[in-house]
Amino acid sequence: MNLSEEEWKKRLTPEEFYVLRQKGTERPFTGKFYKHFDEGTYVCKGCGNELFDSESKFDSHCGWPSYDRTLSPGSIVEKPDYSYGMIRTEVLCSRCGGHLGHVFDDGPTSTGLRYCINSVAIDFKKKDK
């Protein structure tokens, strides 16, 4: 998806634009999906790309929703991030390029990964029963 900045501004709220398009971060412990554990799929707020399954979500106590794996290998793109004097790995939506958060190698499950994702960058599709 190649939209202009003006098109993104019309499509997203100011907070969504700040995080997804300007690589911002929401305040910890404030996002609507931080303590959310319903069954379903988390998708990119910018384009609807399916990113994470609820089975991969865990409470890492870091202040943001955390997952130990993506829904499919091609759903995200990882890039080195050297901003703010840190060495991290940024996580982007593979479809629209929206900034989702970061991935760390300190996860408690067998994957060893902790995808630390901004709630404002994602949406949720509840699983049909």
Write the layout of secondary structure elements.
Elements: H1 5-11, H2 14-20, E1 40-44, E2 50-53, E3 57-58, E4 66-67, E5 76-81, E6 88-93, E7 99-104, E8 114-117, E9 122-126
Antiparallel strand pairs: 1-2, 1-9, 3-4, 4-8, 5-6, 6-7, 7-8
Summarize this structure as a short list of keywords or feature phrases.
Metal Binding Protein, Guanine Nucleotide Exchange Factor, Chain A, about 10% helix, about 130 residues, three-stranded antiparallel beta sheet, six-stranded antiparallel beta sheet, globular, mainly beta
Shape: globular
Radius of gyration: 14 Å
The average pLDDT value, as a whole number, equals 95
Q: Assembly type of the shown chains?
A: single chain
Order of SSEs? HHEEEEEEEEE
CATH class: Mainly Beta
Q: Can you summarize the main beta sheet?
A: 6 strands, antiparallel
Head-to-tail CA distance between termini: 32 Å
Explain this structure:
This protein is mainly beta. It has a single domain (5-126), classed as Metal Binding Protein, Guanine Nucleotide Exchange Factor, Chain A, CATH 2.170.150.20. The protein contains 2 helices and 9 strands, in the order H-H-E-E-E-E-E-E-E-E-E. The protein has helices spanning 5-11, 14-20; strands at residues 40-44, 50-53, 57-58, 66-67, 76-81, 88-93, 99-104, 114-117, 122-126. The chain has a 6-stranded antiparallel beta sheet, with no helix packed on it. It is globular, with a radius of gyration of 14 Å.
